[in-house]
Amino acid sequence: MKKHKQDILIFIPVYNEEKNIEKVIDDIRKYSKSDILIINDGSTDSSDSIIKNISEKNNGNLFYINHHTNEGYGKKLINGFNFSIKNNYKYIITIDGDGQHEPENIPNFVNTIKKNNIDILSGSRYLDPKMMLSTPPPNRQKVNHRITKILSAITDYDLTDSFCGFKIYSVSALKKLKLTEKGFGLPLQLILQAHKQKLILKEMPIELIYTDEKRTFGVILNNTLKRFSYYIKIIRKEIDCIESNGYRSSS
Fold first, then answer.
1. Mean of the pLDDT values across residues 72-87?
2. Pairwise pLDDT comparison (88 vs 56), residue with the higher score
3. Span 8-244: which CATH code?
4. Domain boundaries, the chain
């Protein structure tokens, strides 16, 4: 593997993004020269060949990992975090590969986390109503808000958006977490463990953009009630784990 020269790693988790990934990378390059890591999680479209072609033209500044089978959203994130730890980056930015995040926010994310001694700076699509450029699917917004209220009651974080994928993390802070959730509920486990470790987590408003309202969570989690139950199960499991180790939440 080629050695990196940057303190910041921009990580793009990908699954079936043949229509978007090239533009996402081009847009990121307008605002940052940081190293890029792409993990393709068993895409069934032409994402793999597109990313390989892009990687060959990026002068060693783009690292690519291909999962031959789909391992899950959470597993992609865990692998990306581990890559940043192993390669001694100071910060890792996660940005989705579907074009729903604006790379022009990257410099502001970097400046804010560095100047304010923050461990995790999370984008929020609901913090500033003026930045809601799309109308979110009602069932997704409802589940997000309900889970966010629960997490805010458990932790001392004043959250408005539990599931935004646009974040910047201090890699030293990530080293304190023991993340295991392979599915879409990984952000909930991360938030609860961050609270346990007394990490500083803040939100920053970003644009709410939906490029594909028909995007699915998979056969089972497309059912709103089952998806909500899955999230609750993760929260309960993490709290049980925390309390079994002698820690009590602030609630």
1. 97
2. 88
3. 3.90.550.10
4. 8-244
